[in-house]
Amino acid sequence: MKMEAIVHKQKTAGDGRISFPTLHCWNPDTEIITIAAQVSGKRVSCRIAYTDIKTKFSEIFDTPLDSVVKYRNEVEAAARTLIENKKYEKDGSIKISYADL
Fold first, then answer.
1. By 3-state DSSP, what share of the chain in percent is helix, strand and coil, each rounded to 5?
2. Where along the chain do its domains lie?
3. Which residue(s) pair with 24 in the sheet?
4. What's the mean pLDDT when you consider all of the chain?
């Protein structure tokens, strides 16, 4: 009986995978929260206005970043959909709106 090795091809950067490292920041001047996405090995900034989070969700916390941590799954899901649909801004970022949540 002859045995053959099965080789699984490893995915590499550029394979279309989307992940979300735990990176986020708040700009008090623009009142925009930015979370990071990793898309095919490249960093993409995903921005959402704090007013959209306050409008969408009833429970808001002391700081904008606490609110985005609480609703991170929803924000990431919206960002993932926009990335998959290639809805990039001219600068390569993703703009998440209230309607996207």
1. 30, 25, 45
2. 18-100
3. 35
4. 88
Instruction: Work out the end-to-end distance of the chain between its first and last CA atoms, rounded to an integer number of angstroms.
Output: 57
Give Cα separations from 25 to 28, 32, 43 (angstroms): 10, 8, 14
Strand-pair category, 24-27 with 94-96: unpaired
**E strand segments, 5-96:** 18-19, 24-27, 32-39, 42-49, 94-96
Tell me which of 12 and 40 has the higher pLDDT: 40
The pLDDT tens digits for 22-33 are 999 999 999 999
- The CATH code that applies to domain 18-100 is 3.30.160.140
What is the distance between the alpha carbons of residues 101 and 99, in angstroms, rounded to a whole number? 6
pLDDT digits (tens, 9 = 90+) for 32-51: 999 999 999 899 999 999 99
The answer to whether 67 and 57 are in contact (CB under 8 A) is yes
Q: What are phi and psi of 35, to 5 degrees?
A: -115, 155
